[in-house]
Amino acid sequence: LRQLAPYTSLSLCTASESNIARLGMPDKVQYIWVPILELQSISNKDCACGHMVSFAGSLKDKRAKTVRYLKRKRIQIHIGGGEGVGTLSRSEYLNLVGHPMTISFAGTIFESLTNARTFEAISQKSLLLEQWGTETCKLLKPYVEYVPWFSKRDLRRKIQYYQNHPDELLKIAERGHL
Asked: Radius of gyration over alpha carbons of the chain, in Å?
């Protein structure tokens, strides 16, 4: 990448962001996730947890605070994956994000982003509950194809609302999938 830098405006890398930080070229190199997309969704019928909400990823910083808050408010969340926790198989991961609702945190590493989970969740017909950022709303219509959230309290209220309004949950999840 260093040798190519004089000839490129931007390099996109799928390696870990820690590798990019070590390159010392933050304006020339951008880390991106590679989404796992399936042509057909799998159901979470193999999951015996009974939870309506899932989160796939590392529980650190604000993510951990948000999840602890939701649990204190008696919202059950199926959590899996994340750095240092263990790798999920492809089907385990898709099963996890295939719960009726999936939480996504946007802007936790960069200011605002659309990460792979956005596409993975909608590919599984899950209602994507994504932290507000300026990028996802350029690709999906808020409250039509996904539901943005603005604070942990707002996220809790939206989870509770869609738990009590499953028809609306399914309608938005279906529109996001199309």
From this structure: 17
